[in-house]
Prior knowledge:
Layout: H1 2-24, E1 30-39, E2 43-51, H2 53-76, H3 81-100, H4 104-122, H5 129-160, H6 175-192, H7 210-218, H8 222-231, H9 233-238, H10 240-263, H11 267-287, H12 291-322, H13 327-334, H14 338-342, H15 344-358, H16 364-381, H17 385-413, H18 419-426, H19 448-463, H20 474-496, H21 504-507, H22 512-560, H23 565-587
Antiparallel strand pairs: 1-2
Transmembrane segments: 53-74, 81-100, 106-126, 138-161, 173-191, 212-233, 245-265, 270-289, 309-330, 342-365, 385-406, 448-466, 472-495, 568-587
Domain NADH:quinone oxidoreductase/Mrp antiporter transmembrane: 101-381
GO cellular component, one term: endomembrane system
Amino acid sequence: MIATAWRVVGVGFSLLVVLAAALLHGVTPGTTKAGGIMIGQEFWFSYEFRTDGLTVLMLAVVGVVSACVQVYSIGYVRERVASYTALVTLFTAAMVTVVISDNLFVLLIGWEVMGACSYLLIGHYWERRDARAGAMKAFLITRLADVGFLFGIFVLGVGYHTFRISDLGSGPIQSHTLTIGTLLLLVGVVGKSAQVPLQTWLPDAMPGPSPVSALIHAATMVAAGVFLIARLFDLFVKAETTLTVLAVIACVTMLFAASCAMAAVEVKRVLAWSTVSQLAIMFSGLSLGTRDGRHAALFHLLTHAAFKGLLFLCAGVLLHQVGSAAFVVLRRYSRRGALRKRLPWTFVTMTIGLAALAGVPGFAGFFSKDSVVEAAWERARDGSVVGWIVLVSVGLTAMMTAFYCVRMWLWIFFRTPALAGAVGAFEDDDPMADLDEPDARKLREGSWVMLAPMLLLTIAAIGLGYTDGVHLKWQIALITTVLAVLGALPAYSLWSRGADPRPVLFEREYGVDPAYQRLFVVPVRWLARLTVGGDQDVIGAYVRATGRAGVLASAGFRKLQTGNVQTYLTAAVVGVVALAILAGVIGS
């Protein structure tokens, strides 16, 4: 009964967010104050909330995806339903706070609450070691980045003498102060959106429930970084150094993450690396410093929310039915095409989601990704080095994206023609290799509460591409389509030959995690042990010695309390005589 009540509250709150976006659509942009406090004699901290086109867009994205996740979770989540629904609702509310706030500290509140909720939701299956480890890793990395984010707020607030977002950039400020402040904010953005070098937490957050992954990757948490830069876009444009750093980070991240996705052998991990790469494409659009680039980045954020949320919900169905979304397990069902035949709705919806992600013409991802390419092309034509770097990087990423999308689609849903080679490619690492062929008759499609959100997001993954008006240049569309085909062909060739497409370097994800382990985790643990040892053996020794001395002293004084009056009088006489002698010596 309690769980049902919480589910009603969760779905209702998400629909309320959607209703708020609908009511605010077309409203004149403005700011609403809700009181405040005075900090010292100079700063007025006010609770202000902002309404504009960006607010409406993000509220719609957050509300729709959150509602889909809440409904989907009714058929998916069975353990600790009340706490799960409460945390998802709080997670959504925190993102709404970030979206509507017009004060840096109010935004910080939502920013940090999201981090706490993500830790608890990723570790929802706390009895699993990988879930606990992933939750802790996400918490530590994002909190480390948020230290820079907090100092960035201080620098910009003090520099402009206001923490109101609407007023930032309106007054005079020294250029180096603006650069330092925006760079510090960028540290928090990099951590929250899992960009290089703080990208390792997001793929390891996959042990959490699939609906949670859909919410984090599509509408909250990682999308908050893109939103923040879009909100403070005029401020970042004035800091050219920061935009250049953002462009470099974005281009490196999109190529790095796409190459990791090409070798991953678990559906959710492929999608996680894909999210890192797609977020980098959005950041690259923002780094161009033009209105077209900002518009393209937000357009891609909108379409990405639809098809990435859809793909994670589809992955949830696979986990729900098969028990694992690893290729080595799913392959055992795909030998007879069972997943495609027994889960037709999942097959169709996931196919559409992957087509949108790969940039197949006619789907939403095609239009939004091409809009970023077009914005980069216009910037490159003006002689911008950043424009050329972004243009080449997005083109290569589009080709790599098509590769891992086609590879995953074929390996999950279709029987490999060269089955012997395919088995040999994975069998060595397959813990189920000696088991009997799984009974595909036990597979069945998800319930209607799981399929309904998937169908809604499927429609969005197709239709959202046409909401912005199709005005792409056919030359750019042709080039990106050719790049997608060039990426898809090798994936098909490898699949048809049953070859293992995992280069060692890609499979190990460039050894970043082991490197971080050696460079940071091991020294920190050593320092922690040293600190604990110093506390116990040095500082603790002094404390224990002091306590022991007090105990010994009290024991000695206790022995003097014999209760014998003659002993007391003798001691008093001896004391008086000693004092008299001492006084005489001093007087002489």
